[in-house]
Amino acid sequence: MSENNTNRSSAATLIATLGGQPQVVTFTLDALFAQGEQISEVYLVHLSLENPRIRQALHRLQQEFLDDHYAGRRCRLRRAPIQSNGQTLTDIRTAADAEATWQSIRNLIAELKNEGRKLHLGLSGGRRMMALLAMSAAALLFDHQDRIWHLYTPEETLRRVKDGAVMHVTPADGVQLIQTPIVPWGAYFPALRMLAQTSMLTVQEQLRLFTAMEDPACRQVWERLSPRRREVLRAFAEGKRPDEVAAALSISLSTVNTHKTAILAECRVVWGLPDDEPLDYRFLRDRFARFVQQV
């Protein structure tokens, strides 16, 4: 593999939904850089530029990415307008518009994953429906390394930064980038990724069937566990990390890890997984998230 291909496969991309608030993109990007992420390109998913607020937001962001550089780093800004029949959608008003939005986002994610990109998905801008549809596409196409993010901005800061009046903040402003849990179904069931080429409704029905099929295996594991280990499993299924489980249950981290190892051993037996297949707490979140809501 050439050096250029190696660099590209190790690079990361931020996909951000865009409405009239350009600062949510720069706040997210700044936070990712602060975490040590190497973001080399940003794709803006947006509706028609006939909307003056979206047009102004794009212009404001373009000023931040002069000559394919952002804050002294090499980072390209790219547009990904939502298309339907060759035209950019002005809004998401109908089921057909939702389908077109889902397909546009799905195609973008699939193309970037085929290039070996690590993806970050920022969903704080634009229509709420756009964010929901993006999460649906990500569930099929994301890998375990990919991340979805929500941006929390305090009300006082919101008023001050509105409409891109301020494009960068300090820790004192209270802006927080929060990871949103997601089950990467396509990583566990590669056949589901083929479904991404079909309609959104077909995918939703197949996902419902797949999750229902998981229930008997989840119940087998559940019934083999002690009450305490069920509490640990539930905490992991709710998206907590090991340290957060320890804090929530008032037990030590080593105790959490002991319970986790025992629970994963039961999972390995029930799912028939080979001994050399690595499992960690994310497996519990991904497989049991739906199940624990029912028990």
From TrEMBL:
Gene3D superfamilies, per the entry: Hypothetical protein VC1899 like domain (Restriction endonuclease-like) (3.40.50.10770), Winged helix-like DNA-binding domain superfamily/Winged helix DNA-binding domain (1.10.10.10)
Domain HTH luxR-type: 222-272
Source species, domain of life: Bacteria
SMART domains reported in the protein's UniProt record: HTH_LUXR (SM00421)
Keywords assigned: Kinase, Transferase
Signal peptide (UniProt feature, chain positions): none
GO MF entries: DNA binding; kinase activity
GO biological process, one term: regulation of DNA-templated transcription
Segments crossing the lipid bilayer: none
InterPro entries per UniProt: Sig_transdc_resp-reg_C-effctor, SSO2081-like_dom, Tscrpt_reg_LuxR_C, WH-like_DNA-bd_sf
Name of this protein: Histidine kinase
